[in-house]
Design brief:
The protein is mainly α and 142 residues long. The protein is 82% helix and 0% strand.
Amino acid sequence: MLYLFVKALHIIFVVSLMASLLVYPRYKIHQLSSAPGEPLYEAMKKSSQQLRMIIMNPSLILVWVFGLTMLWMNPALLSQGWLHVKLLLVLILSGLHGYFIGLGKKVDRGGDGVSAKRLRMLNEVPFLLMIVIVILVAVKPF
């Protein structure tokens, strides 16, 4: 029963992490569409900082805590090939989180070298990774 609660918490924080990874770049795209000091720029800067501190970073940490707890509670999962691929994709997703944060801070400093087009393209990557991860977890193809 405890394992199922840990699994439920893992899923809850995966959902909140994914939501934040899909929204954060959009905030930065809107921020880039205005100049520093303008109301939209400042609103998007503040909103993205709050999203990062209240939802994004804590969710990433808790996804890992509950995911690793499930592995500790059921180490037999480590012998399944699908899980190795999932863990690799989750590492990539975690790196993408850090990359988004770095880009966001660059936008906050004036946006030199960060384009809205680049952010739009990158905004699709978490969704694509999530599709593959969910298929791996649900289907367990190997």
